[in-house]
Amino acid sequence: MSENIMSINNNNLITVEDTDNDGHHHHRRRHQPLDANDRRLPTSDDNTNQENPILNATADVDADDQHRSDRRSSSPPPTTPTEATPHMKDRFRRRLKYYFMSPADKWRAKRRQPCKLVVQVLKIILVTIQLFVYGYDMSAHLAQESNSVIAFRELFLSNWDPVREVMAYPPAAGPFAVYTRQDFYASIDYAIAQYANITSASVGSFGYAINSTDRTGRNMSDILVRRQHYNKGEARPSDYYYEYDNQVFTDELAIGELFPPNDQRWSTEFSSLKYFDDHNRTVLFNRLLTLELLFPLRTIYINSMADYNRPKCYDLNVSIVYDNRQNDGQMLVELTTSRQRHLCNGNLADNNRSDGDWLVVRQVLNWSVIVFSSVSAVLCLRSLYTGQVLCWQTRRFFNRYLSRTLTLRELLDFVDLWIVLIIVNDILIISGSALKMRLESRVATAAGTVRYNTVSLLLGVGNLCVWTGLLRYLGFSHKYNILILTLRRAVPNVLRFMSCAFILYGGFTLCGWLVLGPYHLKFRTLSRASECLFSLMNGDDMFATFYITEPRGDLLIWWFSRIYLYMFVSLFIYVVLSLFIALIMDSYETIKDYYENGMPLNDLQKFIAECTDEPSSRAYTEDRHTTIADTLNCFDCCRRPSPSRNRHHNHSQHNTTNSYHSF
After folding, report:
1. Cα torsion at 380, 386, 392, 395 (round to 10°)?
2. How far apart are alpha carbons 195 and 335 in whole angstroms?
């Protein structure tokens, strides 16, 4: 047996208290107020045939309970959108329109300073100055390294021709190699003799990898001979007979200080052939794969003697490799160098105080770039966060008041890829600037060596992204954004077209490399073949490509090369490139038509376009700004509310004015 007790509070809400058989009380509240005629309690003078509002309210509460139980047992019916007032829609349109405004329009609307634009302009100026400064330093450093390699080739390689130092195409000379055993041993003897006399023969500041305070009495570091060969091997070409064990062994042999440095006996008495035989390292050319000579040296690059560009100390390893892996009668010879930065012990009397000031200017420039890039990254991250908050609020507004869901393309409008690009270039520039400061540090050691190419890559790509990001601000003007709009429209069609063209291009590349590789300089490797075809497609060096084919008496290869090249040139220049240009032009004409007749708008853009308030209107300044509670409410709609929170929300919603606080 249960009992219902009803009361009416000051807010005209009906509260029903149920008492069950166990004595437990349950409070239920009706969420609609009584009509004006039903606010008084019934009296005995009332007409007995008139319906009692209290009993009706109790019946309504019971009916509501029955309705809730029915909803739990059945699927929920579709909800109807809540009606939004025109003021709410206009206000939300203004907020969306303000978000997509240009910095100039935002300043006219709310007098908000374009902080990101100012930061980007200052950052571009600083980053460009930093790029020029580092570019000159890097070019000088790499030129110094390249000149050192050329000097070592002139010093250590016998019969080296300076013509080989010129990057000419086609090459003026063939590969540098030895062809006889006498030349092989003679080149080794020449390199060792030059190494022994390098401190007196070279015009550069080179020394041996040994301290002058070494108590062992040595004056010259050892030369290391590293050899790779087969464990067992014999070949008798006259009998067409061979016997090999393909297991590869590596052994090393050190050539010590047989004579003092700069002694003429290194040139007159030393013989590598005799030294190898005496130490049981006889070279068997049928089994030899590679033989490497390692010469450890130390050097000091004097540079410009400025305080910001002091001399730098390096450990050098000069390597000469004799490559006999093909065993075809031509043993290729290659000289390479590797270096590691070492801490210098020296003093520089700086007579020019401006050099010290220039060092301070460099450090200030580096720190300024890092600070402005960090501020830019923070502002852009805040902009992305604001866009995502507005995206969630827009989804909630459309679902609640317009009964529709935003499409993926409409949601992507809130993700500004230009902002993402700016964040990426900020990260690259900060990383590159930090490594650049490490390079310019006076305490750089071998353990903390930073490669110039790494810094160049970070700063170069970062600068490219910085200058590309300027197109974002030009895109706000209809007179300058036609390039961006054309590329945006053409990209899908171009990607589909390029996927088909790439398949055809790959087939021609593989065919040319396989058939013409042995007979044509430009098709020797797969990478060269691709580069050659791409150059032909752009009209570069056509006659030379046809002319330098060497069929070596095979007319089939000669005719194939002609047919192959004519087909590729005709197909890709006259057809593929023309269609590619036609796709771009079609997109350009479409964009021009949009400028004349108007751009096609999606539902979100149509909703925003209904806002007729100009940026100079006072309506933007009168709108209330979003609070933290409003931001939390926009994410609160994504959580599934509990029944108790629903009852509390429905009760509080009645006591508030009809306004949309989340926006």
Report:
1. -90
2. 14
How wide is the angle at C-alpha 180 spanned by C-alphas 175 and 181, nearest 5°?
125
pLDDT, mean over the chain: 77
Least confident range of 83-97, 374-388, 582-596: 83-97
Q: How far is residue 223 from each of residues 178, 190, 228, 292, 455, measured CA to CA in Å?
A: 21, 13, 17, 10, 34
Give tens-digit pLDDT for 297-347.
998 887 655 555 677 888 899 999 999 998 889 999 999 998 887 877 766
- Concatenate the DSSP letters of all residues of 73-101 into one string: HSPPPPPPPPPPPHHHHHHHHHHHHHHTS
CB atoms within 10 A of CB 14: 23
Phi and psi at residue 206, in whole multiples of 5°?
Answer: -115, 145
φ, ψ for residue 417, nearest 5 deg: -65, -25
Q: Which two tokens stand for residue 188?
A: 């080794």
Query: Which is more confidently placed, 638 or 349?
Result: 349
Encoded amino acid at 193, one letter: A
Q: Would you say 92 and 402 are in contact if contact means Cβ atoms under 8 Å apart?
A: no
Question: How many whole angstroms separate alpha carbon 253 and alpha carbon 226?
Answer: 7
Residue 426 pLDDT more than 80?
Answer: yes
CATH of domain 103-111+482-608: 1.10.287
H or E segment to which residue 26 belongs: strand 25-29
Question: CA-CA distance, 657 to 88, in Å (whole number)?
Answer: 12
User: pTM higher than 0.85, yes or no?
Assistant: no
Closest by alpha carbon to 463, among 373, 384, 371? 373
Helix (H, G, I), strand (E, B) or coil at 222: coil
Question: Counting Cβ atoms within 10 Å, is residue 637 exposed (0-12), middle (13-18) or buried (19+)?
Answer: middle
**CA-based R_g, the chain, Å:** 41
CB 248 within 8 A of CB 289: yes
Q: Among the residues of 197-317, which ranges form H helices?
A: 198-201, 265-268, 272-278
